Amino acid sequence: MGRIHSLLAAAMATGFMATPASAYMVYVSNERDNTVTVVDSTTMEVVKTLNVGQRPRGITISHDGKFIYLCASDDDTIEIIDTSTMEIVGTLPSGPDPELFVLSPDGKTLYVANEDDNLVTVIEIESKRVLAEIPVGVEPEGMGISPDGSVMVNTSETTNMAHFIDTASNEITDNVLVDSRPRFAEFTPDGKQVWISAEIGGTVSVIDNETREVTKKVTFEIPGLRAESIQPVGVRITADGKKAYVALGPANRVAVVNTETYEVEKYVLVGQRVWQLAFTPDQKTIISTNGISNDITFIDVATDEPVQSVTVGALPWGVVVSPN
Amino acid sequence: MKSAVPGTLAAFFCFFSLIVNVPGALAQGAAPGQSASSKKAEKPVTEVKIGYLRAYAPQLALSVLDVPPRDEGVAGAELAIADNNTTGSFLGQKFMLEVVEVEPGADVTQAFDQLVGNGNQYVLADLSAEQLLSIADAARDKGVLLFNVGAADDSLREEECRANIFHTTPTRSMLADGLAQYLIWKQWRRWVLIHGSHDGDKLLADALRRAATRFGGEIVAEKLFEDRGTARRTDSGVVQIQKQMPVFTQDLPEHDVVLVADENEVFGTYVPFRTWVPRPVAGSAGLVPSGWHPASEQWGGTQIQNRFEKAADRRMISRDMSAWIAVRTLGEAATRTQGNDFAKIDAFVRSDDFSIAAFMGQKLTFRKWNLQLRQPIFLGDGRSVVSTSPQEGFLHQVSELDTLGVDQPETACTLD
Q1: What percent of chain A lies above the pLDDT cut of 70?
Q2: Beta-carbon-side half-sphere exposure of residue B381 (alpha carbons within 13 Å)
Q3: Structural domains of chain B in order of their starting residue, each with its CATH number
Q4: I want to staple B196 with a disulfide (CB 3.0 to 4.6 A). Which of A104, B133, B201, B232 is the partner?
Q5: Structural domain spans, chain A
Q6: What is the pLDDT of residues B23-71, one digit of tens each?
Q7: Can you tell me the mean pLDDT for A128-135?
Q8: Superfamily of domain A24-321
Q9: What residues of chain B lie within 8 A of the CB of A180, using their CB?
């Protein structure tokens, strides 16, 4: 501990951002012990652990990398963390029990899923004002936004729908049925498709953003594992749009899906109950949070091999990487 | 015991039909519907009417903390109606619940006819096995699907099974197997069984004996605790119990666990901490197997627990969950079949495509051979969840959930 502290002190003394140019900071929310762990992406070592609000889950970062936004679910708030000091500098009015959110491409608006209230809350970050509350299905969770920011997609876990919301009017335009307990919504970089994971259904539905219809269902099969233990949660698609990574929960693996054939090309064994994923900005690495094994795994995107696992806090949930 | 009250009087006395939780359901369900309807003109609304037929009388318990809530089960159905209506608001579907109560042991045919007469093609039954069977054939002839949310009797899924009765509540054998797997996992293999003298106690004792044989437990001794009709709550009864229970358990051979089968609140609660030798207690007291636990927060459980408490002003218990699952099953079927076509809903629930998510970590499905819901069994001590079964290592070629209860090769059920 002492060594880590002195290292940390040294890091702080030289300024937190004064790390090698290629290093990114990886921020992990730990649902169980109310902390955020900061990991250096180059050394793959923990550089800091920060105490935050209760039951931290969804985590994202401003496009300039200056602020982290964190859902402190049981405190019914979103905390703003200044990345230069790693201190909580404010909160946003999230509505009750915020779980996941998505930041608009222009960085001005945060769309938050309030899972206890069947609402999506729209927050203007600068004024810290609630712009709208959009009624959606039961237990809203997954939040995705189109690259141009015009369409937001929310998934509701008990209603089993993807709700397409026009961000200009903040109204639902389409409701698309997907499989059981949809957890995550991810647009392809060209904005033509939305990928929706269904945790209990065990599938990922690919929805055409033009027709708003499910055009493909990605299924998973792992020899020796029961179908019920394959529970897709986090989804991330590479910037070139060629590969999708799907975290498979208690199957302890991340599936690598070819977005042209929709076939799984590889299952990467990571840690136990893998939930969320994040790329480094250079797209060389994708990082998974493994809840039950209390660690994160760095996966090499070129080879799809796991590189290293790093122990973080208790029940790591969300992960985001600094953009610079 | 048949009710002496004539049918019409019973009807007047017992029927209080209500469309439940109207403010809650509207508040939660109608908001998106309203905005949608104002935007997209009038969308035709399909109604799905669900009845809830319930045998109810106030019950006593050894501990006042265990007195069943007035709306046990019904509150779970109401919450599922609200959930279904939130989803329904996007699809033009409206779900309604009509609750009818009769006395335990009373004739239920008239109450059932009333529900059917009011257009309820789906009826949740929170009744005794005898009462449920008394309406099964009439339900079949009238094209009504029944959902058993209250009776744990294995016989309803075996020799007395029916093609029009789905069961969302676990059987005694599922509960016993869930408990037994945990005790074996703990390597607590030697059990003594103390059972009561009521019919349900004997059936639960049978289920525990069967579980011992299946999973390698050994019942080293059995004792009957006769119900002599003593008052369940007396001012200083506790002083006597402290002296009586040790003596009652004094002559037992070496054992690891005391199993208690007492479904009627006669003695079970009095066993823990009062045995002659210090041993854990399980069954109807101590470590209790159940279909749901009011403290379960795993697998997204926090969400339904919060939602339930907000709506019902109490914690969610097993019967609430059985009823929630039954109503959600119909909601899911109406969503997936895009309407209220009875034949389509019936076919969908029976199909391979059907599954339901109920905060238990995996999809739940019905056993095709007897229409029993596959589900994990919670093991709790009244404060918290100790474990859930199936336990690791109890394997099955189809579904590990089929290690709980009577499996297909053993079933006595033939559905026609």
Answers
A1: 93
A2: 8
A3: 7-170+294-375 (3.40.50.2300), 173-289 (3.40.50.2300)
A4: B201
A5: 24-321
A6: 333 344 344 444 443 444 567 899 999 999 999 999 989 889 999 999 9
A7: 96
A8: YVTN repeat-like/Quinoprotein amine dehydrogenase (2.130.10.10)
A9: 355-357, 363
d(CA B97, CA B92): 17
The per-residue pLDDT for range B233-270, each reduced to its tens digit, is 666 566 678 888 999 999 999 999 999 999 999 999 99
Interchain contact, A135 vs B400, CB within 8 Å: no
Q: Which two tokens stand for residue A29?
A: 């929310």
Q: What is the DSSP string of B10-72?
A: HHHHH----BTTHHHHHHHHHHHHHHHHHHS-PPPPEEEEEEEEEE------SSGGGSPPTTT
Q: Copy the structure tokens of residue B323.
A: 């009823």
φ, ψ for residue B334, nearest 5 deg: -65, -35
- Cα separation, B80 vs B85, in Å, equals 8
CB contact under 8 A, B357 and A97: no
Question: DSSP letters of A79-98?
Answer: EEEETTTTEEEEEE---SSE
Residues near B288 by Cβ (< 8 Å), separated by ≥ 6? B282, B379, B380, B381, B382
Contact A272, A291 (CB under 8 A): yes
φ, ψ for residue A4 (rounded to 5)? -60, -40
Q: Which residues of A touch B298 (CB under 8 A)?
A: none
Q: Which residue of A has its CA nearest to B328?
A: A158
Classified as helix, coil or strand, B367 is coil
Q: Is residue A16 over pLDDT 90? A: no
Please name the member of B36, B90, B355 whose beta carbon is closest to the beta carbon of A161: B90
Distance CA A87, CA A28 (A): 15
CB atoms within 10 A of CB B243: 10
Q: What is the helix, strand, coil percentage profile of chain B, to 5?
A: 40, 20, 40
**Summary count for chain B: helices (H), strands (E):** 11, 12
For residue B397, what pLDDT band results from cuts at 50, 70 and 90?
A: confident
Per DSSP, what are the bridge partners of residue A119? Answer: A114, A135
Tokens (6 digits) for A116: 């206890």
Q: Phi, psi at residue A147, to the nearest 5°?
A: -55, -30
Whole-model pTM: value is: 0.87
